[in-house]
Structure formats: C-alpha cells, structure tokens
Design goal:
Distance between the termini of chain C: 40 Å
Strand order of the largest sheet of chain B: 1-2
Largest sheet of chain B: 2 strands, antiparallel
Chains: A mainly alpha (101), B mainly alpha (502), C mainly alpha (547)
Largest interface: A-B, 46 and 43 residues
Radius of gyration of chain B: 22 Å
Strand content of chain C: under 5%
Number of domains of chain C: 2
Order of helices and strands of chain B: HHHHEEHHHHHHHHHHHHHHHHH
Strand order of the largest sheet of chain C: 1-2-3
Structural class of chain C: mainly alpha
Largest sheet of chain C: 3 strands, mixed
Strand content of chain B: under 5%
Radius of gyration of chain C: 22 Å
Structural class of chain B: mainly alpha
Helix content of chain B: over 70%
Helix content of chain C: over 70%
Oligomer: heterotrimer
Chain lengths: 101, 502, 547
C-alpha cells in the first residue's frame, strides 16, 4: 500500500479534530494550550503535504511562519496563566467564572 | 568564480517600496523604540509622556498614509504592491490604516487617565497598543494569506496581553485567558482554512488565487469550500459574528476599558478588512457559494446581538452585545459583495469606531477606581452630576441607535442601501428590526442617566485626555452626521484592488 | 400632465424656518446656569420669529399655484442622490403655519417646573423637526426629520411628564421607531427600484420619483405597505394606536399639545404626500382597507373615550377618533374628502391643542385628571368653563365652528366614495358629542366641593394664550374659504395625478353633482351661530352636533 498525499491530509484533519475537541473538553489550561499546539501542527502537516503535492516551496515556507507564531502564542499563554496562578493556585478553566451575564 | 558561488543568481531579493510601508514602520518602530527608551531611561521621564508619544506615533502613521492615498487614488498610478506581491497598497488599505491609526490615538489618550487612576502606568500598555495596531495595519494591507495570518497574530497576541493588563482585577485576568484560548482556537481554524485554500488553488497569494479562480473551473471544489468555511470561522471569531461571539461579552466586561475601546474599533476594523479582502475581493467569483453562509451569519448576528443586549444589566456587556449587533450591520455590507457594500462597511467601521471609543470613554470614567462600577445603576443621575459627560454619552447612544443627524444613522442607512441594492430585502428588514430592539437598550441607559436620580455623589473625575477624546468624538458624530458626504466619498474612493508588482 | 411647477424663493424662507429654532435651541442650551430664567423668553423669541416667518409664507403664498413654492435645493450627499430639497404647496402650507403658531403658544402657556433650559431647547429642536417634515421634498430628508422628532419628544415625555413617564416615553419611542424602521427599507427600495426602472442615477427626489412612476405594481404595493405602517403608527390608526393614550396622558401639557397638534399630522400628511402622491395605484388599491381602519378608529376611539375616567386620556382617545376622520377623508380619494381631511388636520390641531391646554390648566390647579374628583368647576372658573365649551363644541363638530367644516367635507367625500362607511362614520360624530358633553357635565356642572370650589379661574396669561385658539375656531368655522381656496389647487392636482397614473380610477363624485362643496357651508352658517349662542346646555348642543 502506498501512502499518498491524501493519507497525510486525513491524518492532519484527525489531529486537528483531536486538538479542537480537546480544547473544548479539557479544563486544565496547560492541556488546552497543548491542544492549540496540536491544531497548529496539524495545519503544518497539511501545509507540508500540499507543498509536496503541488511541488511548491510555499507550503514548506509557511510552516516556518506558523512555528514562530505558535511559539509566540505559547509564551503569551503561559504568561497569562502564570499571572492568574499568582492570585489563585490550581485554577482550572471552570474556576474562571466571574464574568457572566 | 568565488563570488558567483557565494551569491548565486537564483536568490533574488524583492523590491521593497519602503515609502509605502511608512505606517507599518512608524507603528512598529515607535513601539520598539519606546520600549527601549523607557527601559533605559523610564524613571526620569514624566508619567504622561507614554500616552502622548503613542498618540503622536498613531497620528504620524495616519499622516504617513496621506501620500499613499494621493498615489493610489491618482488615475495614472493607482494601487501597487509594496513587498513581493504580498503587501498591497490600495485605497481600501489606506483608508483602514488611517482608521486603525486613529483608534490608537484615541485609545492612547483614554489610557493616560485610566492607567494613572488604576496605578498601572508605564509604557508597556502603549507598546502593546502600537504593536497590535501594526498587526492590524498589516492585515489591512495583506495580499497574501500568510501575511494576513501574521498580521492577525501580531494584532491578537498584543491584545491578549492588553486584555489582562489590569493585573489586580480577577475579571481582567479571566478575560485575558478566555480571549486567548478562544482566539488561539479561531486562529487555528483560520490557518487550517489557509492551508486548504492553498491546497485547492496552489498558492497563498491573493492575487494568484483570484487569477486562478477566475481562469479555472474547479471540477471538485470541496477542498476550496471547506477552506472558505474554516476561514469564515476564523474571521468570524475576530469580528464576533454569531455563533462565534461567545467571548465578546466576557472579554469586554473584564478587560480594562480603554483596551475594550480599541478592541471594538481597531481590532474589529482589522477583522473586517480581512473578511472583505479575502471573501469579497479574492473569492468574488465564488460569491454564490459563500453568500448564503454569510447571510445566515448576518441574520444571527443582528438578532442575537440585539436581543441579548437588552437583557443585560452591565453597561459594558450591553455595549459588547450591541457591538455584535453592529457587526451584523457590517456583515450586511460584506454579504452584498458589491462596491457599495464594501464602501458601506468602510463607512460603518470609520464612524462606529469613533462612536464606540466615545462610549467606552464615558464608561471608563464612570466606572471609577477599580474599573468595577459599570452596571446601569451606576449611571443613574449622571445627567445631573455630570451633564456634559451624560450629553456626550447620549450622543453616542443615539448614534448607535441610528437616530438621524448622527453618523450612526447614515452608517445604517448605507448598509441598508447596499442590501437593497443586492435585492436582499429580508436582510434589510431584519437589520432594521434589530435596530429597533437594540434601541431599547440605549434608551435604558439614557433613562438611567437623565430620568433617574442618584444618591451617589462621589465626584467623577474626567481626565484631560478623555475630555479631548469625548469632544472630538461627539463633534465628529454630530458634524459628520449632518454632513456625511466627505466620509462617504472617502469610503467610496477606497476601493480594494489586487495587483502584483510589475 | 403638466410638469410640476417649482417656484424658487427669493429669500430662503424654508431653511430659515428650520434653522431658526435650531439656533434657538443651541442658544437656550448654552445659557449660563445662573440665567436659566432667561430660557423661556429666549425660546419664545425664537419660536415667535419662526411663527412670523410662517405667517409671512402664508401671506406670500400664491393661491393659484398648485405646485411647490418657496423651493430651496442644495446638494447633500451627491454620491447617493440625496439632497436638501424643500418646498411648500397647498397641502403643507397650513400644517407649516400651524406648527409655527402652536409652538410659541405652547411655550408661553405652561411652565415646566424644573430644568427650564433643557425643556425649551428640546421644544425648539422638536419645532425644527416638525417643520422639516412638512417641507421636505426629498425622501431622505423627510425620513431624517420624521425620525429626529422622536428624540426631543422622548425627553419631553420622559423628563417632564407625569407618574408613568418613563414607560410612556419608551413605549412611544420604540413604537414609532418600529414603524419608521421598515419605512427606511421601503424608501431605499423605492429609490433603488426607481433608479433601475427609470434607468437614472439614484435620487431621493420626491417629485421626480412620483412623476415618473417607474415601479412595477407589486413592488410599489409592498413599499407602500412599509410607508403605510410608519404613518399608521404615527397617526395613530387602529390597531397600532396603543402608544398614544399613554404618551398623551403622561406627557407634559406642552408635549401633549404638540403631539396632538402637530406630530400626529405627520402621519396623515405622510399618507397624502408619500402615500397618494408617490403610490397612486397602491393607494387606490388599499383605499378600502384604509377607510375601514379609519372608520373603525372613529367608532373605537369614540367608544373608548366614553369609558375613560381620566380627562386627558379621554381627549387622547378622542384624537384617535378625529384622526380616523382624516384618514377616511384622505382615502375617499376625491377633492372634498382630501380637502376635508386637510382642514380637519388643522382643526384638530387647534381644538385638541386647546383642549389639552385646558386640561393642563385644570391639572395645574387641581393636580388630578380624574373626572370623578372634579366637579362644579363652572362656578369657580366660569371663564375656563366658557372657553372649554367653545373648544369642546368645535371638537364635536358643531356647525359654525371650525370642526364642522372639516368633518362635513370628509363625510361628503366619503359618502360619494363609500356610502355606508360614511354613514357609520357619522355615528362617530354623535358619539363625540356624547362623550365630550358627558365629560363636560361631570367636570363643570354639579356641586363644587373641596378644592373644586376654590379653584382659581384663568389667569391673564393663560387667557392670552387661549385667545388665538378661540379666534381661529370661530374664524375657520364661519369663513373657511381662504383656507380651502389655498388648499384646493394642490388637492386637485393630487387627484388629477392619481387619475393620470391609475388607469381605471376616476375621482368618486356625487351622481348629480349637487350637495358638495363648501357653498353649502355658508348657507348653514346662520343656524350654526344660533346653535353656538345657546349651546350652554349640553342636550341642545348634542343635537346640534348630531345634525
């Protein structure tokens, strides 16, 4: 059996879906960040697969941009978590419920 | 030859039209310079300086766009590409650049008094504000999906931090984390949409995608349509379209008020810039495919925003839901997918930015130290305590309700015109009904301000920066409400275009 | 069809009329806090200047000209074909004059009690808006003024009104805004479809759109419906009238006077100018519906008014009945009916305005509007009672007073068009006599006890305010000719316009051509004067009214 581009695309879609559902289900902020990472890397896989399929450099180049952005996002996200933890230790997303209408 | 080996001909650096990047450079450069100067010499600098510098930088970026406007509206020269086909300068991008830059000016002036009252003063707020604006301007000028994504991330990352800037308020922290998680979630969707579009069309460059879609009939367009859907989800989050709006009320309520003013104006403008450029301009040939979705989004956004706004008791939440409803009006213009539709969105963005900044300016001073007093009851008797403040707020509220002789009315009128022109009467009627529903909310605040008494006689301090913002915003709202022509003409001239470098 | 005459004005009187109150509003609002006492005289000054301009317009009006006069035109938003385009013809003339004269009187008549500056500033803004509605010949401009009047009225009711003012003000605002919201869609659709149908650029010019009639029948009907909803709410017609009793009851006296005298006319005027003129075909098609609703309004208003215990609410419901007459006349679609409707607009403005003033005066003295708590006021306040009788009889439609001429013409017009509806409407006249006279009897007759006994009579200032109303009531009753002869050319042209554009429509006139016109009115003058002379006792006047 030969692994065609479609396989990679499907794999990307599955990982993306795992990330998205994890983000919605899990309540630990750190796990939620990991899920975001999962989603972004699923997209990276898709980009690379398409780049290979189209024989175009753009797909691979895009991945670099996404990697940088993902790193920056984690930095910001962790900083926000740290700021919250300083006030309330052991917080989960369910504890964040001051804001409601 | 030695040199030939080290520098092979195959690597070509693109021509960069540096003059076209003046707004980007001024905003980003200003931010970095400010960070450096204040970390080295901050303790010797007066506390009011950061906001003045930021306002000056914002103003500089706006002024720096004027020569671009002359150039792109000149019939002989027209729109052009600034960097390797991926940053385009056209009337559309220049118009939005000016709008975003001016929202920075306002947000900086508002922040001065606010940050000092909350003992949060320092350059960081302003640096983040400028960086975020640089991202917004990048989004407005992006001619490549990846550049668009980068702009969006620069914008968003800075605003995530700004949302949590009030580090002693639990609500602010909570707003930051909520905004961050949902923002990252939506960015991932946007990115996935970009990837699928790339796969379907073979390029991330909007000019190439547009040319490809025009020249090629896709036999199997499932990939492309999936890309549309994901892009729409990603951008829908940014412009808080229903059903992707859930973060808006929480984040608006929790974030520091000047930040909210910027979120509802500058950030929204950048989001709509992307939405218009990607869907209306680039995917214009596929309008029949995405218009029904946008129709549904617009109807839901209009109605849900207006109805949920009415049942709120917190003014910041009310304004959050009302901003959702206003986004619905802008979505009407996007849905029209016509020159008038685009112009109506631009006009709406320009005048709504001023309105919403003015509104949050009032909320920011009424909320008092701690930024917590934002229920309707806290506005009771404002007309007696601070008549001019209440008057300004009344102007903004009436304009948001769409009362004639204010900019808000003409904005709604223009959106309706775009809808009717596209034969979407039902959409126009839904829009007007939602305007009536939302009017109740504005009336509630006005009743509290003018018709109810209050025994709270704590003085409301209005800082100078806020006075300036309120004065300019109110004068703008009434002045251009009576004579809308200049801004209408600008919005109509601000046509988007997709061109490659020659 | 000859092209519409557009007589330019030598002096921009219309902009002057709209701007004077606006400038006045700003001036009043900017008075220093210590000089708040100056607010009333200053506001009255500006209102009087406006009124003087309106009287000058009345004098300078060319009676023979059926087109628009004093036209002023100025580009506004050229890209979308929006302009400032204003003019006055026989249809709007008297409404403009009515607005110009009612406002200063309402300002002089009552003192708001608190926040004088804001009160008078809002009244002046309201005046500018009202006049703007009646002179606008550009659809956009019309909508702007039609909608802007909500804001001052909202604040007038909400801040200076009675107990339930917040509720009434909000209801008023949302109701009328709902009506006009759909009209905005209608206006834009009309303009867009007109531009497509006639293959021209977008234009909001009323005359151009009305004289071209480029719309398909179905679209015109749908758009007419959006206009009709807005006007029906404003009039207000049954069944969208429910905001009116609340707004009237809770509004301060001046607010009620203006609301009844001027603002309700925006709806009926809208039906003429933007209903019949813009959509002749749709208007003729839906005329039976409108007549039905108008007639229901007449009877319903009268019946409900009979049951009211609150004097002000009673007058409010009587307004619904009177406006039913105006709608009936308008949609009779013949010269008599429309003439009568127009005249009735003016009459209703005068007599109901005066009634609200009188009720306001009573309220100021007794702090109640409950009919059951009043009684025997005739003894303590004979002058007030006398004026009340006269105004009430005019409202009932007693021959010789102004109300009669209008109602008579309406009934003649309606009789020629839809015989049976006219008969039902005529019962409304009888009911009007019933509820007003009954109310009069309960309030002014009988034994005065408690505070009723010592209630002071009209003051000099109040008498001065009421005098013009009394003069107008009598003058228009015995000699309506100058008014009718100025209205008629424009009304004739409107009817001819409908005949031109609606294929199978002919003006409904009497079979033998006799028994119509206002010549008859003058014959009946003598009885009328006698009737008025001994109308002191209710029973006699009731018979006179039912004639």
């Amino acid at each position: 059996m030969e692994l065609t581009t479609t396989w990679y695309l499907v794999l990307g879609a599955i990982i993306f879906a795992i990330g998205a559902s994890g983000l919605m289900i899990r309540r630990n902020p750190l796990v939620m960040f990991m899920c975001v990472e999962l989603m972004l890397n699923a997209v990276n896989l898709t980009f690379v697969a398409f780049g290979r399929e189209l024989d175009d450099l753009g797909g691979q180049v895009s991945v670099f941009f996404v990697l940088v952005v993902a790193a920056a996002e984690v930095v910001i996200g962790l900083a926000i978590i740290v700021a919250i933890m300083r006030h309330r230790s052991g917080a989960t997303a369910d504890d964040l419920s001051v804001l409601r209408g | 030859m030695f040199f030939a080996q080290v520098a092979p001909d195959s690597i070509v650096t693109p021509d960069i039209a540096w003059t076209a990047l003046v707004p980007h450079l001024v905003l980003a450069g200003g931010a970095i310079l400010m960070l450096m100067v204040w970390s080295l010499a901050g303790r010797w600098l007066p506390r009011w300086l950061p906001s003045m510098v930021t306002a000056a930088v914002g103003l500089g970026a706006a002024i720096g766009s004027i020569h671009l406007w002359r150039r792109v509206t000149d019939a002989d020269r027209g729109p052009f590409s600034a960097v390797a086909d991926s940053v385009g300068i056209d009337g559309f991008s220049v118009f939005l650049t000016v709008v975003i830059s001016l929202t920075v000016v306002f947000a900086a002036l508002l922040a001065d008094g606010y940050l000092r009252r909350e003992r949060l003063d320092g350059p960081e707020y302003h640096v983040l504000l400028l960086l975020s604006a640089a991202g917004g301007v990048t989004m407005a000028t992006a001619n490549d999906l990846i550049v668009l994504f980068l702009g969006l991330e620069i914008l968003s990352l800075a605003v995530y931090v700004l949302a949590g800037y009030h580090n002693r308020r639990a609500q602010s922290q909570e707003a930051a984390i909520k905004y961050f998680v949902l923002g990252a979630f939506s960015s991932a969707f946007l990115l996935y949409g970009i990837a699928l579009t790339y796969g379907a069309t073979g390029s991330t460059n909007l000019v190439d995608i547009n040319a490809y879609l025009r020249s090629t009939v896709l036999v199997d367009d499932g990939l492309l349509l999936a890309g549309f859907a994901l892009l729409l989800v990603g951008l829908g989050f940014k412009v808080s379209a229903v059903p992707f709006h859930t973060w808006t009320p929480d984040v608006y309520q929790g974030s520091p008020t000047p930040v909210v003013a910027f979120m509802a104006s500058g950030v929204k403008a950048a989001g709509f810039a992307a939405l218009l450029r990607v869907f209306v301009v680039t995917f214009g040939t596929y309008a029949d495919d995405w218009k029904p979705i946008l129709y549904a989004l617009a109807v839901a956004t209009l109605l849900v925003g207006a109805i949920l706004a009415v049942v709120q008791n917190d003014v910041k939440r009310m304004l959050a839901y009302s901003s959702i409803s206003h986004a619905g009006f802008m979505l009407i213009g996007v849905h029209a997918a016509s020159a008038d539709g685009t112009a109506s969105v631009l006009y709406y963005l320009a005048v709504y930015s001023v309105l919403v900044i003015g509104s949050f300016a009032v909320v920011g001073v009424v909320s008092g130290t701690g930024d917590g007093a934002t229920t309707v009851g806290d506005f009771a008797g404002l007309g007696a305590r601070r008549p001019w403040l209440a008057f300004a707020f009344t102007v903004f509220l009436l304009a948001q309700a769409g009362v004639p002789l204010t900019t808000g009315f003409f904005a709604k009128f223009y959106a309706i015109t775009a809808a009717v022109d596209g034969r979407s009467w039902a959409l126009a009627i839904v829009a007007m009904l939602s305007a009536v529903i939302a009017a109740y909310l504005y009336l509630r605040i006005m009743i509290a301000m003018w018709l109810e008494g209050s025994d709270d006689d704590a003085p409301i301090r209005v800082p100078v920066g806020t006075v300036v913002v309120l004065g300019v915003a109110a004068a703008f709202t009434i002045g251009f409400g009576i004579f809308p022509e200049p801004i209408v003409d600008l919005a109509r001239d601000a046509t988007p275009a997709l061109v490659n470098s020659p | 069809m000859p092209p519409v005459l557009l007589a330019e004005a030598s002096f921009p009187v219309i902009p002057a009329m709209v701007l004077t109150p606006l400038v006045g509003a700003v001036a009043v609002a900017l008075l220093p806090r210590g000089r708040a006492r100056m607010a009333q005289p200053l506001a009255v000054l500006f209102a009087v200047v406006t009124g003087a301009i309106s009287v000058w317009i009345l004098g300078d009006f060319d009676t023979a000209d059926a087109g628009f006069q004093f036209v002023s035109e100025q580009g506004w938003v050229d890209a979308l074909g929006i302009s400032w385009f204003a003019g006055i013809d026989g249809i709007s003339l008297f409404l403009v004059v009515l607005s110009g004269l009612l406002f200063p009187l309402a300002m002089v008549a009552v003192d708001p009690g608190h926040d004088h500056k804001a009160y008078f500033a809002w009244l002046l803004v309201l005046e500018a808006g009202c006049i703007g509605v009646f002179v606008a010949l550009d659809l956009f401009m019309f909508f702007v003024f039609f909608e802007i009047v909500l804001v001052p009225m909202y604040f007038l009711i909400g801040k200076w009104g009675h107990e339930d003012r917040e509720y009434a003000a909000t209801k008023f605002f949302l109701y009328t805004m709902f009506g006009s919201a759909l009209m905005l869609v209608g206006i834009v659709s009309l303009v867009v479809l007109h531009a497509q149908g006639a293959d021209v650029d977008l234009t909001f010019n009323l005359v151009e759109i009305a004289e071209t009639q480029a719309l398909a029948t179905n679209s015109a009907r749908l758009i007419w419906a959006t206009f009709a909803l807005a006007f029906a709410v404003k009039v207000p017609m049954f069944p969208v009238h429910t905001w009116l009793p609340d707004a009237h009851t809770e509004a301060p006296t001046a607010g009620s006077v203006i609301l009844a005298g001027v603002m309700l006319k925006m709806g009926t005027y809208g039906f003429l100018r933007f209903g019949l003129y813009l959509f002749p075909e749709a208007s003729t098609t839906f005329a039976p519906l409108m007549i039905t609703l108008g007639t229901i309004g007449i009877v319903y208003g009268a019946v409900v008014a009979t049951m009211q215990r609150d004097l002000k609410r009673l007058v409010a419901y009587s307004s619904i009945a009177h406006l039913g007459f105006i709608v009936l006349g308008t949609f009779a679609l013949n010269t008599e009916g429309i003439d009568g409707g127009l005249l009735q607009m003016v009459n209703h403005g005068i007599s109901t305005g005066a009634l609200f003033l009188l009720v306001g005066f009573i309220y100021e003295r007794r702090h109640t509007r409950e009919i059951s708590e009043l009684g025997g006021l005739q003894k303590s306040a004979p002058l007030l009672a006398g004026v009340f009788v006269l105004v009430m009889l005019s409202s009932i439609g007693l021959p010789g007073l102004n109300g009669f001429v209008g109602e008579f013409l309406v009934l003649v017009g309606a009789f020629n068009a839809h015989r049976w509806w006219a008969v039902i409407a005529a019962t409304g006249v009888i009911l009007a006599a019933l509820y007003l006279l009954w109310a009069y009897q309960r309030v002014f007759h009988g034994r005065a006890d408690g505070e009723n006994e010592t209630m002071p009579d009209l003051r000099f200032k109040e008498g001065l305010v009421l005098a013009p109303f009394v003069v107008a009531i009598v003058f228009l009753g015995v000699y309506p000719k100058p008014v009718i002869e100025r209205m008629e050319p424009a009304v004739d042209r409107l009817v001819a316009h409908i005949e031109t554009f609606v294929d199978d429509f002919d003006e409904p006139v009497a079979d033998d051509g006799a028994g119509t016109g206002f010549d008859d009115i003058e014959v009946e003058e003598h009885d009328a004067e006698e009737g008025a002379a001994d109308a002191g006792t209710p029973t006699e006047a009731a018979e006179g009214g039912a004639d």
